[in-house]
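Bench notes, bay 3.
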Amino acid sequence: MKQFNRRDFLKAASAAAAASVVTGCASSNTSNGVPAPAQQGQSVIGLVAPKMDVVRVAFIGVGQRGFGHVKRMSHIDGTQIVAICDTHDEVLQRSANYLTQNGLAKPALYSGTDKAYQQMLNRDDIDIVIISTPWAWHAPMAIDTMNSGKHAFVEVPLALTVDEMWQIVDTAERTQKNCMMMENVNYGRDELMVLNMVRQGVFGELLHGEAAYIHELRWQMKELDHKTGSWRTAWHAKRDGNLYPTHGLGPVSQYMNINRGDRFDFLTSMSSPALGRQAYAKREFPEGHQRNQLKYIAGDMNTTLIKTVKGRSIMVQHDTTTPRPYSRHNLIQGTNGVFAGFPNRIALEEGSSKSFHEWDYEMADWYKQYDHPLWTKMGEEAQRNGGHGGMDFLMFWRMIYCLRNGEPLDQDVYDGAAWSVISPLSAQSVGNRSASIDIPDFTRGAWQTAQPLGIVS
């Protein structure tokens, strides 16, 4: 295998950037006027990788989410964990010990510097790489992974800027490698059931969706040297917009066939005042503490409205600051009725024993009739292996199943880019008096003929 190093990557990236400048005037435009870089390869919609008898897996980042991923992957048939990289030796050894204590071979370990993962990518016995690192590393690590000839699976969000999204899309198309953002919520029981109901026309023609990440996380501000809060807190002082849009938006996008018959057209966004984190820091930390030195600018609640090309509307909200119960909203409205989550409830004009003027909160019969075949088949095992009620395990199981059986993944690079780009674009809108902002078509028009995600069994 050709050795991969950072110098080669930077040279290739510089050449690609120079080419995009030279050809910029000739580049194709999306239908809403957002310029797209000149395409460097073929579309990866429906990409099928050669079947793998055994999927050889490597991990970058095993501190919190990544350690859970190691545990769940170790329980999936047809996988071999080959290598693990982390800059923190304690969590690196924890993952290695978990594997050996459960009778599995010790993986090769990489540490020492922020770029140690690049040495790991030189190996020729790795098929896929699971990336669970701070957000700023997602794009460079995904690009490096694909350039080294491996498939990339990235924690949410896929990237942080519009330019990064395009770089990832271009790399996936040029290398013909999968780059899937691991949106686990798409594999939740409720979300799968609603997808099944939508496909069967239970709600009629779709009109409107609501999605959110409302999850009080101020306590993470006390994580100073390690764990998520040590780097995530700073984003509240960097960007005023939706910092984390994909958990609620992913399922609603699949209901609406975004990038598979419809696509995001434009958005407008506004934020509430940013008061909660400053107040929390003042209350919980000494006056001179680093948490009191930050100027928190991300509004405690951000609300973003998205319009699709087919005219549908989606409300996306983000709030990790205010004291309120957890919610992802997960609402889908059609001409025949509505499903809403947190708590789950349904109202239909036709097909329900109750009037649409009142909610039906009893889910047992709906589960019995509409549970997704994936959940019917794997739900008990998913719950047994854990991860947000089983959705994490089911996501990994499905990823491995597709790779071993030569099937397209349920989520592709265009999904990850479309769902993640809402964050930088929402900040752009907020900073311009909630002006309407066009959303790039990362598929470059291929959404018009792409097939909707089916109900797989």
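Next record in the batch:
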Amino acid sequence: MKKVAYDCDVLVIGGGIVGLATAYALTRSAPGTRVTVLEKEPGPARHQTGRNSGVIHSGIYYRPGSLKARYAVRGAAEMVKFCAEYGVAHEVTGKLIVATEREELPRLHALVQRGRENGIPVRELGPAQITEYEPEVRGLAAIHVGTTGICDYGAVAQRLAEASGADIRYGAGGEAVHIDRRADRGVAIRTADGAVVRGRVLVNCAGLHCDEIARLTGDDPAMRIVPFRGEYFDLARPELVRGLVYPVPDPAFPFLGVHLTRGIHGGVHVGPNAVPALAREGYDWSVVRPRELAGTLRWPGSWHMARRHWRYGAGELRRSASKSAFTDAVRRLLPAVEPGDLVPSPAGVRAQAVLRDGTLVDDFLIREGARTVHVLNAPSPAATASLPIGREVARRALAAVGAVGAVRHGVAR
């Protein structure tokens, strides 16, 4: 068999924070490993990574023992350390999770227990104690989570890219248009500029397009990405909020609800809601991509999900269409806010994996194929957890590279 000339050992598709953390982990775990990262945008972190509220999550929300719980708790501490080491703006602020209705109190108490199971220190607060932290916030009870923080994830991604030493190709040279994966020869990707890049193993960290990339390799991901747009506002009177304030989330959904976040640069972000996007990169209602929308509508899970959660979805759509309704949602936490205090801010799109039966995947999802590792569900708190996620993906990729080398040299494994 003709010898293949590989351009790299590991090809990573996706220049968001998870793809770049994987490249960073690969070159640190196995120095000398040749890594190429392909990113179709002109720079890193242009989608989920660069369009979120910048929160370093504590891990309190996530089911004990899940990847989200383990990686978020570990990742939060590592992210603070990484930011300090690489000079990225960050701060450990703590946050409040506030119950504003009596029916939310059992869920708030369950979060206290979950936090303790996940090893996260929490402090329970009554109404008077809430105002000690946030004078303008009102609630029946709250918990204070001291390990939550904020940072600039775009800057983190840039530092990961630089420190990884990987060959990172942006723009047309980083957009995969065709993938030829052969178990006995490796992976070849043709990019939009006509170049062909060959690697021994492919890592798919394509976020909003990860299921499409998996299918291009010939693997069946058994899920589809259904994009949800999160719409944000900036608070014109940022003095109303000192730090981070969250509602009690509904455990039936992977969304945290409209919250208030004082960012690393001093402004206060309000949002997001969660509405269906009409394109994978549909950051506005005017962005419609018929092929992508048709793909979402053809997936049976989309219809099962819609039938199961239509009431929740209707409320989110109402808040998207009506600034007054969005303001009412914010007033549950911050009664002083007025519609004029909310200034539109750039939206984000969440890449939510949905199974055929309509189940919204609620944990990180990593699957493997021949010479491939696919990250198929990595929405929030993936930025927080990116360093441990990157190590896990790198471990699997290096195992695949090692297996390929063992077979090539006739070594039994």
